[in-house]
Every structure is written in structure tokens, then in C-alpha cells.
């Protein structure tokens, strides 16, 4: 136990507090709020990794180290596919964490996370990896390998997840409610493998078509629970309560099937969807968009 506490204290120096201010007019403001608080971790003395939705659309980011000093954020590189953001900093150097590899991570591995609860407060939680498996979320997002843990995040999202040698293996993006699966982390490989692209501020290639809706899976189907105002789905007349039946004549009964069909296409391509509304099957054509352009 003393060893784990010592590791956590050492790792805490690389953990930073984030406060993002988002303009009211930004498309994400109505969904995620105009003020977002979060956690990040220094992967270099002048680079911080965090969850992308915490800083998406930000006009101002207050980034504070455990020493209480603010560092200026000079650039934000977003990656919608991985769900990560890399922040470039100016000012006093931060202690950088040690990068690990999540590829050998397997159920049973002891882990701990460190999260901010205030600018100068850090709290931790320990547990173990409960699963490493594909994950799909309702905002047109999915991971081939997501790390599920039994550690409950005691603070803000964006928290670093460490192995039992205090090496960074993931970034905590979501809190979950399934038994034994309380925190979901994005594997650090998705940063390491895309680092050069993020440093250059380049979006993922090939670019994926984006529809701008919030589909939820239910028993044997996919239901639209909302649409992004001004997005392709809204412009095409898709609305909350529509059941998605097919994309380009290919039946879809899960988020994985739905996203696979959408992501075969590039932004700007037209997609023919079949929906069920009021017991009537309808055909809808959607002109997909580029999420990077929409949310820039």
C-alpha cells in the first residue's frame, strides 16, 4: 500500500486542472456547456493530453499545475476519432509522466487513476482492469480497444490511468454504471501512434462521414435520441424517436453496424437511410459532413 501511495504522489505532479470557456455560438455549447472543468496529464514539459470534449471549441483554457501556477495554452489539437486532445503550452515546464503501453493490458492488472477536484486538489482511486474490448458511444464514436476498470473516478474527466509502475496507459473519458466497469479509458497507444499527426494539427485520414445525430442501441435496433442542431441529420429531417433500419440498403441493428456503414463514406457523400416513424417506413437522404469543420 505504501508503495502505491508513493507512486501516486510522484505521478500527481504531472496532473493538471483545466477550465475551458466555450462561446455560446459554438455548436458544442448547447450539448456540453459553456464552462467545462476537467483533468489533463503532461506527456512532455510543454504538452498535455486530455479528453477532447473538454476543450472542443474553447476560446480560453485555464490550465493550472499542482503548484497552483497557470500555464498558457498556445494550441489545441483535437482528434474526434480517438477522443483525445493534445494541448501545447508556454510557460514554466511541467513534470512529464512516463508513457507505458496499453497493448499488454489485460483483465486483472492493478491500476490507479488521479483526477482533479479543484485547481490544487488531486484525488486518486485504485482498482484493476475488468475488460479490454470494443466500445461504441451514442455521439458517433467508437474504439476497437477500450480499457474498462473497477476504479471509480473521484473527480473530473480526462484523468490519467496508470499501471502499477505509474506508467500512463490511458486517459479516462467516461464514467460507467455497469457492475465492475466504472471508468472507461482511451488507450495511450492512440496518442502514441497518432502523435506526429496531432503535433502537426492534422485530422485523421481518411476523413469519416459524419451525420450529426445521437443513436442509441436497444434490443434489436437503433433509435435516434437526438440530433445536432444545424447538422446533416437535422437538415435531412431526421428527428428524435426515429428508428434506423438501414444505411445504403444495408440493415443496421447495432451501433457497431451503423457506424461501420457510415464510416465507409467520406464527408460530403450522400447516404440513403431507411427509418421507421409512426409505424411507417420512410426513405431519407442525408448529405454527410466533416466533423472537424463543423466543430472547429
Describe this structure in words.
This protein is mainly β and 296 residues long. The chain folds into three domains: 2-95, Trypsin-like serine proteases (Thrombin, subunit H); 98-190, Thrombin, subunit H (Beta Barrel); 213-294, PDZ domain (Pdz3 Domain), CATH 2.30.42. It is 14% helix and 47% strand. The protein is built from seven helices and 19 strands. The strands form three sheets. It has a six-stranded antiparallel barrel. A six-stranded antiparallel barrel has the order 8-9-10-13-12-11. Strands 14, 15, 16, 17, 18 and 19 form a six-stranded antiparallel beta sheet that branches. A hairpin with a 2-residue loop joins β16 and β17 (250-251). The longest helix is centred in the N-terminal third of the chain and has 11 residues, at 2-12. The N and C termini lie far apart (45 Å).
Quickly list its features.
mainly beta; 296 residues; 6-stranded antiparallel β-barrel; Thrombin, subunit H; Pdz3 Domain; globular; single chain
Question: Helix and strand layout, with pairings?
Answer:
Blueprint: H1 2-12, E1 15-21, H2 29-32, E2 35-44, E3 47-51, E4 60-64, E5 70-79, E6 84-90, E7 98-99, E8 110-118, E9 121-137, E10 141-149, E11 160-163, E12 167-178, E13 181-187, H3 189-192, H4 195-199, E14 213-218, E15 221-227, H5 232-236, E16 243-247, E17 250-251, H6 255-262, E18 270-277, E19 280-287, H7 291-294
Parallel strand pairs: 7-12
Antiparallel strand pairs: 1-2, 1-4, 2-3, 3-6, 4-5, 5-6, 8-9, 8-11, 9-10, 10-13, 11-12, 12-13, 14-15, 15-16, 16-17, 16-18, 18-19
